[in-house]
Amino acid sequence: MNAKLLPQSACLLITLSWIATALAADDEQKAQPDLPLEGKTETLAFSTDEGSWLSIDATADGESIVFDLLGDIYSLPITGGAATRITSGLGFDSQPTVSPDGRWMAFVSDRSGSNNLWVAGIDGGDARKLSDDSQWGAISPAWMPDSQSVIVMRRAIKKNEFTMFHIDGGSGVTLSGAAEDAEVWGAGPVVSPDGRYLYFAQGVDSNGPVSTFPTTQISRYEFATGAIDQLTRGDGGAVQQFGDVAPGRPGQHLRPEADAQIGPPGPHPVTDEVDLGRRS
Fold first, then answer.
1. Is 127 in contact with 118 (CB distance < 8 Å)?
2. In angstroms, rounded to a whole number, what is the distance separating the alpha carbons of residues 32 and 128?
3. What gap in Å lies between CA 241 and CA 142, rounded to an integer?
4. Of 68, 59, 64, nearest to 96 (Cα)?
5. Which helix (H) or strand (E) holds 27?
6. CA torsion, points 202, 207, 209, 213, in degrees to nearest 10?
7. Are the C-beta atoms of 198 and 220 separated by less than 8 Å?
């Protein structure tokens, strides 16, 4: 009888050995720094009074704006003046958005080695990672009206989805549509002030002269039912909604994105020093 038990015992020992090896490898990976970089670094210093393709948001009190520039996030008085860098380091920080209560700032950063959703204090301090992805990308964070959760669009090779993360942590909740196969994803999400709807831009079939030409339109998602309605259908599409659907606004109107100036005209220098890490 003991001879019959030997193969099972050997299998058990091999299984336990594999589990121990896997746990040791996992512990070793967790012990490594988030963004391991080695080698020499250089400092790049520059001054500028302009930027392109910036992500901008206003603070809840209307006194200042936050924006990203070359991988760092800055704060600037709404009346103009000198910008203050509030995040820095080797990671590329972008797409800052301020919570409705004015206490927090959500942003996207690759400081962990891949793009993830992060949240920090309005001054850039106490930064912590909300999502924990290595194969997904993250874009377009948007706050819920209660300032307790953030929605972000997560992108993979064959799948895109909106996921909601609580600022205190957790694995997140993926938004689902009313139909079983309905996918909820897009860019530039904005939550209505009452928390009922999520507005976002999404690629749809073109209604222009070239049917295969990609067109982006504004859609609306209802949290309670999962219903998705396409709101715009004009030629040329609409990239991102803004204005009265933003938190703190009446929520009565929807306007397509257009060029705009924030603050009085005139140069307001931004001075920065960036540490350039070289991967070995």
1. yes
2. 17
3. 12
4. 68
5. helix 2-31
6. 20
7. yes
Dist. CA 182–CA 197, nearest whole Å? 16
Helix (H) / strand (E) element for 15: namely: helix 2-31
Backbone angles phi, psi at 10, to 5 degrees: -65, -40
Q: Which residue has the tokens 């307790």?
A: 148
* Structural tokens at position 185: 């994803």
- How far is residue 279 from each of residues 35, 37, 40, 223, measured CA to CA in Å? 10, 5, 9, 43
Considering just the CA atoms, what is the radius of gyration of the chain in Å? 23
Residue located via tokens 């009346």: 79
Tokens of 164: 């909601």
pLDDT tens for residues 175-186?
998 887 787 888
Alpha carbon distances (Å) from 157 to 135, 154, 161, 256: 9, 10, 12, 28
Rounded CA-CA distance 54/37 in Å is: 27
Q: Write out the two tokens for 173.
A: 């909740």
pLDDT at 34 over 50: yes
- pLDDT tens track for 119-131: 999 999 999 999 9
8 Å CB contact between 143 and 191: yes
| Dist CA 242 CA 174 (whole Å) | 24
Arithmetic mean of pLDDT over the chain: 76
- Say which residue the tokens 């020992």 belong to: 13
Burial class (CB in 10 A: 0-12, 13-18, 19+), 59: middle
C-alpha–C-alpha distance, residues 108 and 85, integer Å? 16
Structure tokens at 198: 């999520």
